[in-house]
Design a protein that fits this description.
274 residues, alpha+beta, 434 Repressor (Amino-terminal Domain), 2 domains, five-stranded mixed β-sheet, 7 helices
């Protein structure tokens, strides 16, 4: 018989998320005890599975970023984390939720300072007398003025051409296991209608002009109602695809996956037959 006991402790007195998360992580708060009733520390994989079981899916790369202190969880993920580590106890969940939310109001001491930019003084343009005693601008100054104007226009054109484009999502494709390439990490065909006995549905898509490390979400809806969110970051760990799996087959209905990148939404859809 498997041990189902969960290890629990109240949150420590800290307003730093990194401190709270390290306490949760190292002590295995909310994780199952071993058969000898010893707490089991969390890993990115075990916490990812716990999030999925709580209905608030997120990937291990995101969890690793929380652990390293490079990112804070969203409010929704903090809710999910409080639910997991409290083992379903409403009073304990409230304690942890309050402690976690308090860290969102604490300045991140790891953030890079931008004081140099803030301390730059504003330059006061010098007033140049461009007229000679005869009332006409000297030829030399006129040539210099034309040169400055031409240089400004050239710099503007070059700057406009080099300005980074906004991130975008394209080529959203859905497929089953038979049509998913594990080598290329993408769907070979785009399936719009899945049979009723489908358990695994893959989704591949391309993200362009996305800065490395930027977060993005994948939100799933069935018949207009949200049922799952997966959060991640665009970096070398991102393989270009995601999936939803149900061992009992997916419920019939019209499905939509909404990809949120830079606060912009791109959607794809398919249907699971009854």
């Amino acid at each position: 018989m498997k041990n189902k006991k969960i290890y629990y402790r109240d949150p420590p007195n800290s307003r730093e998320f990194s401190t709270l998360f390290k306490f949760i992580w190292d002590n295995g708060i909310g994780n199952k005890l071993t058969k000898n009733e010893i707490p089991t520390p969390w890993t990115a994989e075990s916490l990812e599975a716990a999030f999925d079981g709580a209905g608030f899916s997120t990937d291990k790369r995101t969890i690793q970023n929380w652990h390293s202190g490079s990112n804070l969880p969203s409010r929704m993920n903090m809710h999910a984390l409080a639910k997991i580590i409290s083992a379903g106890n409403d009073e304990s969940k409230l304690k942890w939720a309050d402690a976690l939310f308090a860290t969102r109001n604490t300045p991140n001491h790891h953030a890079k300072e931008n004081s140099r930019a803030n301390n730059l003084g504003k330059e006061t343009p010098a007033v140049v007398n461009t007229k000679s005693k005869t009332g006409k601008p000297p030829r030399r100054k006129m040539i210099l003025t034309l040169y400055v104007v031409a240089a400004t226009i050239t710099a503007y054109i070059i700057h406009s051409a080099a300005w980074p484009k906004s991130p975008s999502v394209k080529n959203i494709m859905f497929c089953d296991e038979q049509r998913f390439s594990k080598v290329d990490k993408m769907c070979r065909d785009n399936i719009k209608i899945f049979p009723s006995d489908t358990k695994m549905i893959y989704t591949s898509f391309e993200i362009s002009n996305m800065p490395v490390g930027e977060p993005f979400d994948r939100r799933w809806y069935r018949n207009g109602r949200w049922f799952k969110t997966k959060s991640g970051h665009f970096d070398t760990a991102w393989e270009g695809y995601t999936f939803i799996y149900n061992p009992n087959t997916h419920d019939p209905g019209d499905y939509v996956m909404r990809i949120i990148v830079n606060n912009k939404s791109t959607t794809g859809s398919f249907t699971v037959l009854d």
